[in-house]
Design goal:
The complex is a heterodimer.
Chain A (H helix, E strand, L loop, with lengths): L3 E3 L9 H5 L5 E4 L2 E4 L8 H5 L5 E3 L1
Antiparallel strand pairs in A: 1-4, 2-3
Chain B lengths: L1 E7 L3 H12 L4 E4 L14 E2 L1 H6 L9 E4 L2 E5 L5 E5 H5 L4 E3 L1 H14 L3 E3 L2 E7 L5 E7 L2 E12 L7 H4 L11 E10 L7 E6 L8 E6 L4 E9 L10 H12 L1 H4 L2 E11 L8 E2 L2 E3 L15 H21 L4 H29 L4 H11 L9 H11 L1 H8 L2
Parallel strand pairs in B: 1-2, 1-11, 2-8, 5-13, 11-18
Antiparallel strand pairs in B: 3-7, 4-7, 5-6, 9-10, 10-11, 12-15, 12-16, 13-14, 14-15, 17-18
Helix pairs in contact in B: 1-4, 1-8, 8-9, 10-11, 11-12
Classes of the chains: A alpha+beta, B alpha/beta.
Chain lengths: 57, 394
């Protein structure tokens, strides 16, 4: 199953992905996007990310 | 460590809550997860003059980048509708330097007696013992804090409200995906904001150019999340880049900064109080659904939460029933305007390019200082009556 991860080279740490994640799997630390085991691979964050920084792991 | 109130997040909403809680006698701790307050910004920095005055904040040249005379709305065929004076000023009267503005607000909270902890991130919240246990990471170290009351001001990505059982997850249609450049060396009128509205500019959102002094401007885009195509990573940023390329007045400039953000446009459909917790600002989805502006409502809501919080401390009552005074207060203050602008947003996001062209054609040439909402509707009725049907939804 697909799981999301962030590309640190593109991410601007805006937290948009966190706000749309239906399973609360994403956490924005200061400059880290952490995706935990709750990720169900729905891909909403990939579509939402303004700069294309969310990828399939 | 135990406090009366812990405020999570030192943006405008959190600082305002901390200020008014501390000023009214509560022992307050304000947490900020980042290493500095106000940076990186996530905002177009526009704020209305009336809105700012209504927060009891005096304009200070330290954090005002520029003052606006009006706004120009561009249709897809580039018919321009000019809004001047008060009408435009309600939307954007000043373009701020948020980095300075946010720090000043946090400082007023500190001066009123609030403690501030930087680089401190809330990681979990337990509410079931009649008070709040907040787990945090501060400078990397785990710590457990206690408070009678938590004010969640942790922005669009708020988790604090979710831990308290309020599911604030935004549907893609309820959040705008935004990118903005700070650009230098651009040609723009220094005292007009520009809005480019229509699906070909931005599906379900708009592009903005907000001048910051003579040759600098915030140039940004917000696209409704549900209208972003699948499998097109970076669609929003690419759309903005294409817009800038097509406009020589902008493309001659240099990009000094890039920021991104999610702007909640759901309207106020979530609970904002439970036992021992209140939610303010973007975390409460208090940003304006039509414009995306969130600063003023965050400050106003923060103030109301801070005042109710301090009262709760005095009366030792942190129940949902007591705290619902805050919910009642913000609904009276700006709830109606959020509901109204949600209807406007829902109508506008259904329109096509041609509708916006007709709309601009109906409205260009009117002097908008003199034209109230009814006059506006008359103007549309006269030239493009079919648009009213589209707006009202048949």
């Amino acid at each position: 199953m697909m799981r999301a991860k962030s590309d640190v080279k593109k991410c601007l740490w805006c937290g948009g992905c966190v706000s749309v994640c239906p399973t609360s799997a994403i956490t924005l630390y200061e400059r880290i996007i952490d995706v935990d085991d709750n990720c169900n691979g729905c891909g909403i964050c990939l579509r939402f990310c303004p700069v294309g920084a969310m990828l399939e792991a | 460590m135990r406090y009366d109130i812990i405020v999570v997040g030192a943006g405008p909403g959190g600082s305002s809550a901390a200020l008014h809680a501390a000023r009214n006698g509560a022992e307050v701790l304000l947490l900020e997860k980042r290493q500095e307050i106000g940076s990186p910004i996530r905002c177009a920095e526009g704020v209305g003059k009336k809105g700012l005055a209504g927060c009891g904040i005096k304009p200070d040249p330290k954090w005002i980048a520029s003052e606006m005379k009006g706004a120009k709305l561009h249709s897809p065929s580039d018919v321009v509708v000019e809004l001047s004076g008060e009408l435009a000023g309600n939307e954007v009267g000043y373009v701020l330097e948020r980095k300075i503005f946010d720090r000043e607000l946090a400082m007023t909270a500190a001066e009123a007696g609030a403690e501030i902890l930087m680089k401190t991130m809330a990681t979990d919240l337990i509410l079931d013992e009649g008070y709040a246990k907040l787990k945090v990471l501060t400078g990397g170290d785990k710590m457990e804090l206690e408070a009678d009351l938590i004010i969640a001001a942790d922005g669009v990505e708020s988790k604090t409200a979710r831990w308290a059982g309020i599911d604030t997850t935004l549907k893609p249609s309820d959040v705008e995906s935004c990118v903005q450049y700070l650009m230098a060396g651009v040609e723009c009128e220094p005292d007009y904001t520009h809005f480019y509205i229509g699906p070909s500019y931005s599906p379900g959102g708009y592009i903005w150019v907000f001048p910051k002094g003579c040759s600098k401007a915030n140039v940004g885009i917000g696209v409704q999340g549900s209208k972003i195509p699948r499998n097109e990573g970076g669609f929003v940023k690419n759309l903005l880049d294409k817009f800038i390329e097509k406009h020589p007045a902008l493309s001659k400039g240099k990009k000094l900064e890039i920021i991104a953000g999610g702007v909640p446009v759901s309207g106020p459909k979530y609970e904002t109080v439970v036992d021992n917790l209140m939610v303010v600002g973007d975390a409460a989805r208090h940003a304006d659904p039509a414009t995306g502006g969130g600063i003023i409502n965050a400050i106003r809501g923060g103030r109301l939460a801070g005042e109710v919080g301090a009262q709760a401390v005095k009366e030792r009552d942190f129940s949902r029933t007591f705290l619902s005074r805050y919910e009642k207060a913000w609904k009276e203050d700006f709830g109606k305007s959020l509901e109204r602008n949600l209807i406007i947003k829902n109508a506008l996001t259904k329109l096509e390019d041609s509708d916006f062209n007709d709309l601009a054609d109906s409205l260009s040439g009117y002097r908008f200082e003199e034209l109230g909402l009814l006059g506006l509707i008359d103007a549309i009725q006269e030239k493009h009556p079919e648009l009213l049907d589209a707006l009202i939804g048949e």
